[in-house]
Structures are given as C-alpha cells and as structure tokens.
Amino acid sequence: MEEDTDFRIRFSSLCFITDHVGFHGTIKSSPSDFVVTEIDEQGQLVNKATNELIGKVLPEPNNFAKKTKVDFQSLSFKEESNQEVSTVTGCSDNQNHQSGSEKEDNDGTSKGKEEQVDVLGNLLDEKTNELLNHFACDIKEKWNSKTELIGSSPEFSLGRILDKNQRAILHSAVRQKFPFLITVGKNSEIVVKPNLEYKELCHLVSEEEAFDFFKYLDAKKENSKFTFKPDTNKDHRKAVHHFVNKKFGNLVETKSFPELNYDAGNPNVVITVRFREKTHKHRKRSLFECRDQKVIYTAFTLRKENLEMFEALGFLAIKLGVIPSDFSYAGLKDKKAITYQAMVVRKVTPERLKNIEKEIEKKRMNVFNIRSVDDSLRLGQLKGNHFDIIIRNLRNQINDSANLRERILEAIENVKNKGFVNYYGPQRFGMGRKVHTDQIGLALLKSEMVEAVKLFLTPEDLDDPVNKAKKYFLQTEDAKGTLSMMPEFKVRERALLESLHRFGMTEEGCIQAWFSFPHSMRIFYVHAYSSKIWNEAVSYRLATYGSRVVEGDLVCLDEDVDDEHFPNSRVHLVTEEEESANTYAIHRVVLPVLGYNIQYPRNKVGQWYQEVLSKDGLQTCRFKVPTLKLNVPGCYRQILKHPHNVSYQLMEEHDIDVKTEGSHIDEATLSLLISFDLDASCYATVCLREIMKHD
Fold it and tell me: Where is there biased composition of kind Basic and acidic residues (predicted)?
C-alpha cells in the first residue's frame, strides 16, 4: 500500500541536524534487504544460540500443570501404576469415551490422565493413595445405589503438604482424575469432598457428559469449548442452560447450535460451553490457585519475515490455544523486514511451543532458543537493535554532479560524528492513506470510543476483501455480516468485530470491543499520538533555537543514556547562567513524551506544547483512560542520537545477485551494505533519512 500524501508531507517536513548533501536510494526492496536483530540487556544478539535451551521439558499444561512449573523429571513414572489405573477407572466410569469436548482437548486430557495418575502415585504415599481411591469408590457406590449421604458431607484428608507447588499439582490432579470430587485447602492441608454439583448435573445429562464437563471446567484451557450431546428436547436443553449458568455463569457461557448435518424436520441441537474472557480468574478455586501455583513462562526468539508483529502474535496465539496478551516482548519490529526478537509466552511449555514449529514456518515464522524462564518481558527491556541493511539504486541528489561514492562516505561519517534527529519513524503511525494510528490514539485519550472504533475500521480506497468488509461495516454497522466478510488473517479486526457483535455498537459496547485487544495494543495507539506530538515538538525546538542549549530547556544529567526511562530527578531545567556558560551540549537536551508524570520546558517550546494540546481538545487531559485501564505516565526522549558500531561497504549490484541481463555497470548500479546498532526506541529509517537527506 502506498503512503498517503498528507503523511509524506508530515515526515518530509521534519528537519535535519547535519549539513551534508546526501544521496538517493531505495530501502526495503525486499524484506531480506532490511534485517533487524534485537540486542538484549546483556548486549547479546538474540539470534545467537543460547546455552539455556529446553533442558527440563514440562508435560502439556492443559491439566494440573496449567500454572505450575515443576521438575517432573524428578518424579519416577513406574509401570506398577497401571494396576492403579484400572482400579480407578472402575470407580470413575471413565471408559475412554470421546465426549463433547473439542477433539484436541480430549487428546490432551487423555494423555494427561496417565501422567496425573503417576503424579498422585509419586506425591502421595502408597497408603494415602489407596485410601483416596477407596474414598472415591465409596462415594460413587453410594451415588449409584441412590443411597443418601447421611449427616455432614464425608471428607478425606490427604494430609499436610508443605511444598506449595506440590499442593497445586495435587489439587488439580485429584479433580482431573475424580471430577466427582472437590478439593479444599486448609492451611497446608488438602481435604477431599464429594462434588455435589457433579451429582446434580448427572440428573440432567449422562454421567459420561458430567465427568467430561467437570474435567473441562477444571482444566480451564482458554479458547477451548465443551459440547454436550445433541438434544431434541427444548425444555431439557433449557434446564441444562439454567444449571450451567446458575452454577458457573461467572466462569462460562452457553449457547445452542444446530448439529451439523441435522434433519430439518427434527433438528438436533447441541449446547456449547466456553470460558468467559478473563473471568476464570474469579472462580472459587482460583483463591488457592493464585496463592499456590506458579505461572509457566517460556522464552524464545521469534524470527518473522514480511509479517506485522500483531498479526504474528495472533497466529501464534491461535496455534497455542492462548490469547495475544499472553505474549510479552521488549519492543515492536518492522513489518517489511526480517526481524529477530525475544519473546515470552505464558501458560505454554517449551515442548508445546516446539510442537508448532513446522506449522508456523508456512507463515514465514520460526522459533528457537526455546527455554523456561521465571517471568514475562516488559516493553523497553532491551539494549537496542542491530541492523543489516542494503540500500539499492544509489544515485546523486537532483542537480548534484559530485562523485557519488564520495557523497555516500561523507554522509555516513557525518552522521557517525554528529548524530541524527531522534524522530519516531513513519512505521509508528501506520501507512494508511486515510487514518493513522495517532488519530485513533487521540480519540481514545478523549474517551471517544465509538469514534475510535470507526477510525480503526475506516477502509482505504482499495477493492480488496479487507477494505470491502470495512466499507460494509461503516455503511451498516452490521458486525456479524462484516465478520463473515473479513479474512481470517486479520486477527485484530476480527477480534474487534466479534466483540461488537456480542456487545453492540454503543459506547459501552465499543469499550468492551477495545478490550478484545491486549493492553500493549491499546496503549500502542495512545503512544502513537504522543509520538506524533513529540516529532512536531522537536522540529519546533530545532527551528526556534537550533543547536544552542537555552534557558528553560530540559537536559538529562546522565551522560550516557540508552533508553527513555529515566526519572524526573535526572531531568534538569537549564538556567540563564548555564546558558551563558554553555554548560550543556545539544545531545543532552530532552523533550517530554506526553503523560501525567512529566514536566515541560519553560520556554517557547513549553508554550508550544500547551497550544497543541488545547487545539486537540486535551488541555485538561490527565493521560489516563480508566475505562480501558490505560495509564500514560510519559517519559523523556533525547532529541539527538548516534549510531554505534557502524560498518559499510559499497558494492556493484551484480556482486549481490541483482544484476539484470545486459545491464551496464557504472556508479548508478551501486548498492550500499550498511550495518549499525541503535539504542532502544530509535528508528533505522530515521537514521537513514539523516544519512541520505532523502525520504
């Protein structure tokens, strides 16, 4: 998609700090011409192999290990447990049936069953394990014989388990093996009781279905579904709906659908159950789970090619059965490029991630350096990025007859020594012709939720399926119809439309729709607006005062700063005396990125900020959007930056396999191979703009 004229004017109107002539050329002729590799906090390139590879591989976490990282290799899985399996099976009536759970869930559950049996056998002593089995069988026998349980509900103690990870495993392992039982934590003791809700459900559906439903409920696998057997009796279906919603309505929701290939004269209808988004956090069992269990985190390096990062995350989330917000990363990366970046995903084991390697290769993605870690990543948790770039079709600026090679070498050395204006790059604002991400961010800051949704779904003047769907939505506000038109790969658009279909195109409905995006994506739009204002502010600052450091400027007291996250205490307001004495150099000057915890310059630049905010209707904005859980503290950004470790080489195009048949080799066919490092949050396209003096 070509850039819009308005944005080309906005970006080309930004100023330069160096005075060389520059040259013309083409970047990103193909993704392989622009390779970005993240540099971690230790200064290592993330595409290098790490010694901390998988090591201990955890079992699939869709059962008891959902939020627990445990050294399962320390558990000895013995063949003797086979006898126990047959004993337990007799009590549980779990005859390897395929119930209404999705097939992939059943596969994982049945695989996990043997592991859970072994876990019980290894974490409980032989006597306790045997007594637990007898207790379970006794409960089932009483229920099957229709004998009422007299007096208070019977219970069985597994004893005190001091290790909280083992307690977490036992809680879930017991419930997965015996869904007709519940477990209760009393200090460090685990007590087992009959699950009376299980018994109640057995009056409505088969015991087989009840068994699988409670296993599904306890596994709490996000994005999974459970389906009861087909039912032609409307009143009976209504009773099942009522039971599930009354008992577990804060956790799951139910819907009825016609069975595939049904007879229109006598339709079979199935009830499908799925977890409500995020609400599984509030169910009763989560009290001890939050206390006792530890979330699984798996780190990896993601390589992607010509793929937007949020699209990549959406695809990975679908394949892994999680949601995009379960992924964390240190920074965003270009689309039209080959990029390497560190990632961490929650609730997914290293083994599970390895299992999708082949599938994601089709989407031009690879994962490697897979390993278990203790926590997620946060934005900015990197030292910077390394770039390997090819600039093709090199030529002189218009009306410049100087030697091209000399112009190129002069430009690179000039920027190495003097730096470049540290603008946010054009990719920060999107390449749409009609709407940019900063416009959506402004609408969110003004709490104009419906307007923000409409901006997000504004079509371009193109006739492809995506823009046809967007055009249809703006004309009709028919979310369901638009959803049927929107291609599957448009993960963000589809997530938004699904929420709009569910909640409606009202102010409250649009708020819920924005929550279909992870927090990092919601805040991205607000940051885009802040970035636009910062770009305009630094242009105004340089046009007004040039390279002089003047009274009222803000400077960073630290000499070496490689990110934007330094506190207010390290930001100093330049005095009249310091201006006269030339105390500070221009590379120490910073400007605020909008937020509630920053100070403004006390000169013409500070006045400019207030005028712009007033013009945009934000004069009273506190940079908090409570309805979307967005808080924007702001930060400070140096107006100048320098590339590090710069190396370059001029090559004739035939040396890098791009010579066309019969072409004549002269200076016009030169290509530049350039490599350099930039600090976090700096843009290679902006650095190249300063070098080339060309957009």
Answer: 100-114
